[in-house]
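Deliverable D5.2: sample structural annotation.
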Amino acid sequence: MANRENYKEKVIDKKVLLSSSSFYHTTDSLENILSILKKGFRPFYSLEQSYIRKNGGVASINVGVPMICMSDLPLTLLKDNLEAYGGFAIGMSYEWATKNGFTPVRYIDVTSDEYQNSFAPIAHQQKIQKEIKVEDLVLKFPSLAEYLPQMQDDAIRRIQLMKPYIADLYRDSKEEVYKDYNFYNEREWRYVPPISIEDDFEPILISEKYTDYLKQRDYNEKNLMKKESLFLEFDLEKDLNYIIVKEEKDIDKLFLKLGKGNFERVLRGKLLVTEKVLKDF
């Protein structure tokens, strides 16, 4: 093998890269933008449509994963995200996102063995818990006591960061569906709160608590939304790159709610309007 210390250093032209130096969190209201600016980013359970083999086909199940989602697409390629998720966005620095533990999700075909092998045990966990008690397994196999918790955490983490390559995208708040939506094009990065025995929240929800949008919203408001220890704060000047609002009139509404002064001084040069992004970039 050649001595790599003698390799010539090459530089890739950044103009052709598909990644941005900003991470964009898209949302559907100015109120959400205001909340983020005042309190920081809050993880919430997002209803993910997942799929398991059943009766010779594939059946969907609802899985709730606590998360904050962002995309590292450049503005020129962010148009579909803005249209699909509501027209508002906040762009954060790459340094802030990686420092806080954001990582790319793994896109995978839902019919693949790896996807199915990951989700099947979780999908049937309620039945398994009724039939098998962990305590009984540990009594029979004492060495499992050391490895079972880590094995469980690893399996959960794998699912939390996995996403279908192509599937239907449901916008329940608007009763809309994008059929055969290509999630791979979103280039999603995701923050999922670390699994900790001290934190009183479930790392994955598969139950009657989380079968539709209204239950999803209610469960979030009663659980994660109140856990300030899970919020991700940021510095307006150093960490915030852009704010994208839907229309020009939203800029005035933004400063009316925030107050001018320091907010206007810091934010004025970071503001973009979706109408112009969709037209000009």
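Annotation notes: The longest strand covers residues 57-71. Residues 18-51+61-110+162-280 form one domain.
The annotation will be released with the project's public dataset once the embargo ends.
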